[in-house]
Structures are given as structure tokens and as C-alpha cells.
Amino acid sequence: MNVRRIFLILACLCSAAAVFIPCYVIQLNYETVEGGNISLFSAYPIYGIAILVLDLFVIGATIVGLKKGYVIASLINIGVTISTVVNIAINRESAAAVLRITGSMLTALGSKTAMEYRVEDGAGFFMLIFAAVVILVTMIWNALGNDD
To answer: What pTM was estimated for this model as a whole?
Structure first.
């Protein structure tokens, strides 16, 4: 097994690990809310399963040497990952909007306590983007460099 294949396999393992790491974190009054660590697998189980299955297929096709298999699976994996990242960004903004509306309603009803909230990107969000880019680069590098 050459270095190109090893890098593609490592990129797929990074993508698979990103499924279980929180994509965004919701904090109220500087404390993480119960269930506030939103990972891809908890928020979008279909996307998480699809990414895991595609990662396993890319790894298997890379080990066996099916060039068409890992090229097609890598491209589908990148498409699913991009779609997932867009959905995560939209839902993160939706969560912030809901907290903003809730805080405004509490203030309008006369609540004396201010609700301070933060919705931040998690490590999984950046890992998904990084993994998609690395999978694309290593897939091209692997497909062009290997004569399978």
C-alpha cells in the first residue's frame, strides 16, 4: 500500500470521526445546556449514517484498488458532506434566532434576568469541511498517481 492510499484512508477516518464530534454548541448564561452539544449523528442521523457508509466504501475500494469505486464514492461523500455543512449552518442560525426570540419575549413579559446565549461552531463542523477538502485532494492525487 502506498502513501497516496494511506492519506485517502486517513482522510476518510477523519470524516468518520467528525460525525460524532459536536458541530455546534448552545450555551445559556455561559453554561452548556443539556443536549447543547449538537453532533451530526444526533442532529442528522441519516447524513451521519450516509457519511459513515460512504467512508467505509471509499476505504474498502481504496484497499482493494477499485479506482472507479473510490472516485465515485468520494465524490458522493463530498456532496453529502457539503449538503450537511449547509444544513448545520442553517440550523445553527435557527437555534440562535429561537433563543433571540425567547429572550425578547421574556424581557417583554417583565423578566428581570437577562438571558445571555451563545451558539458557537464546534470542532465537528470544521472537521467535516477539512475532511471533505482532504478527501477531494487525496482522491484526485490517488486517482491520477496510481495505475490500478
So the answer is: 0.82
